Amino acid sequence: MTDDKLAELLKTQKSLTEWLEDIKHSDAALIRKEDNEKRERLKVLNEAIDLPFDKPTQFDADELNDGNKKFKRFLEERGDELCALRLMPKEDNLPKLRMRGKTIKGAYVWFKEQEIIQKDYRADFVPHAPDSSWATIFIVNKYGIQGEIIYGGHHQLTQGFHDSARPHIFRYDFEKWSILPRNDKALEHLKKLASFIHVSDRKKQEELKKKLGATFTHDYLMGYFETTDSSMGTWYIDYSQSLGNMYADTIVKTELPKEGALVIGQTGSSGKVQGRVCIVDPDSLDVDFPENGVLVCAVTTPNYVPLMQKASAIITDQGGILSHAAIVARELHKPCIVGTGTATTKLKNNDLVIVDGNTGTVNIV
């Protein structure tokens, strides 16, 4: 895939909630509500256990005007700082609007262009780091702390587009850490992240159970988490119990798939099927896709959802085990193998293949 095509695909990216809404997931509304209030939950964790997070400066949207003294002072003192502006609906049926990467002054200009009823929204100015180092997505369940870590922008994990290096897959089974490929600096960062959600104080656990309905295993807070690290510090940027529940029985494998298969990757969704390959480029999404065909592409984006729903299995060159697309494939109950690097070149249209999402392998029948 060319850089131009990748850039075009990046413009189509959606939040995970929107992906789930596209497939009419039964918990989409619950997850949307949870996503809208994630920083309120992170705030509770920050106050209870000092969890670091990207703490926003909040206003009611109708306070964003030059006549409001508080907002005017905020604009004067911090207007040149980079931010992400989130317009959070006060009613669940309203859409969330967002942008990132502009200065606070620039975000204010963007805000004034939005056609919304201001009294129905809250404005969250979230700090936006000018650089990035480690980023993670992981789950904590009864089997351990497990997920992906990459050096670079967090979008590489959520969207599955890898700028250069691929993610490291990791697991901590509450006794020992394993990471693939091995990286001591990544491991050191993961241990630091784990320390923030280790709550040995029973009073604190009871407080979080009462306020958030939190659950614990081996004294670690359970759920789905996203983090970033930069010159501005380490931040937790998401904590979701609903997504954590979706992965309650997941065990992430941190060993390489068996050699000898034609195509090898990581398991985004388990299962095993046989079908015929249909390679779909981003500029040919209107292809007459065969029912139960095996979708093969560079990386799945929201535009691929109708094909993912038709496919019997999904194989991608890029992508990660907890990327939005992998989560959607799992919820569609379709075997999904990601990060193969070679699927679109080694496989040919109409090849009859066995896709084994349990082992991360693809072979010609």
Keyphrases for this structure?
single chain; six-stranded antiparallel β-sheet; 365 residues; Glucose Oxidase, domain 1; globular; alpha+beta; eight-stranded mixed β-sheet
Overall helicity: 25-40%
- Largest beta-sheet characterization: 8 strands, mixed
Number of helices: 13
* Uncertain residue ranges: none
Q: What is the 3D shape?
A: globular
* Beta-strand percent range: 25-35%
The domain count comes to: 3
Cα separation of the termini: 27 Å
The number of strands is 20
Nearest-angstrom radius of gyration? 21 Å
Average pLDDT, to the nearest integer? Answer: 91
Q: Would you write up a description of this structure?
A:
This protein is an alpha+beta fold and 365 residues long. It folds into 3 domains: 54-127; 134-246, no CATH class; 263-364, Glucose Oxidase, domain 1, CATH 3.50.30.10. The protein is built from 13 helices and 20 strands. An 8-stranded mixed beta sheet has the order 13-20-19-15-16-17-18-14. It has a 6-stranded antiparallel beta sheet with strand order 8-7-6-5-11-12, with helices on both faces. It has a 4-stranded antiparallel beta sheet with strand order 1-4-2-3. Helix 2 runs antiparallel to helix 3 (28-36). The model has no long low-confidence stretch (mean pLDDT 91).
